[in-house]
Automatic annotation (TrEMBL):
Keywords: DNA-binding, Phosphoprotein, Transcription, Transcription regulation. Pfam families: GerE, Response_reg. This is Response regulator transcription factor. SMART domains: HTH_LUXR, REC. Residues 148-213 form the HTH luxR-type domain.
Length: 221
């Protein structure tokens, strides 16, 4: 079972998500929270697999709560999906930097919500190529001089190549076509790269690609 915690200050939003998620044979809502502080306590107590976290909440907002969760090594396996009212929420970029695995708009289709929960548990980032490219553009606009690339020392040449393609927003299928390999091979390279770098998911791999200097602003195609 995939164990989910719902963190949103709107009870109707929580009720709607809970009804949908609990109706699935492989998903269980194990707790709810109405603010970020409550979410933090619930995460520590319940250890869910996934947290659906509203960005804007009282007491402690979702962004601060996400930082506190991802900063704790014992909670590193918990995946956080940010909930927002608008797809281009001004805080989405910072949420990804803080360790969130992706984001959803609250009026998303039910099938997309279910796919999202299952995807992040499998280690995938909940970011469509279009959304990824917007995040990358935002990162490029804010980025400073990249840090030393020592972090990449353990990667093979192919893994660096794959990481660079992830960094410019390509999906596994697009990477496979670019490198003339199978989608499964592309996915394997991405997974091995994430393991070597200790990246939680694809979203963090994008950030690392920029911070290491492997991908530079202006490389969007």
């Amino acid at each position: 079972m995939i164990r989910v915690l719902l963190a949103d200050d709107q009870s109707l939003v929580r009720a709607g998500f809970k009804a949908l998620l609990d109706a699935q044979p492989d998903i269980e809502v194990v707790g709810e929270a109405a603010d970020g502080a409550e979410a933090l306590r619930a995460v520590r107590q319940l250890r869910p697999d996934v947290v659906l976290m509203d960005i804007r909440m009282p007491v402690l907002d979702g962004l601060a709560a996400t930082r506190r969760i991802t900063d704790v090594p014992d909670l590193a396996d918990i995946r956080i999906v940010m909930l927002t009212t608008f797809e281009l929420d001004e805080y989405v970029f910072e949420a990804i930097r803080s360790g969130a695995s992706g984001f959803l708009v609250k009026d998303t289709e039910p099938e997309e919500l279910l796919r999202a929960v299952r995807a992040v548990v499998d280690g995938d980032a909940l970011l469509s190529p279009g959304v990824t490219r917007r995040l990358i553009a935002e990162f490029a606009a804010r980025s400073k001089e990249p840090a030393a690339a020592d972090v990449l020392a353990g990667l093979t040449e192919r893994e660096r190549e794959v990481m660079a393609l992830v960094g410019i927003g390509l999906s596994n299928d697009e990477i496979a076509r670019r490198l003339v390999v199978s989608p499964l091979t592309a996915k394997t390279h991405v997974s091995r790269t994430m393991v070597k770098l200790g990246a939680r998911d694809r979203a963090q791999l994008v950030v690392l690609a920029y911070e290491s200097g492997l991908v530079r602003p202006g490389w969007l195609g």
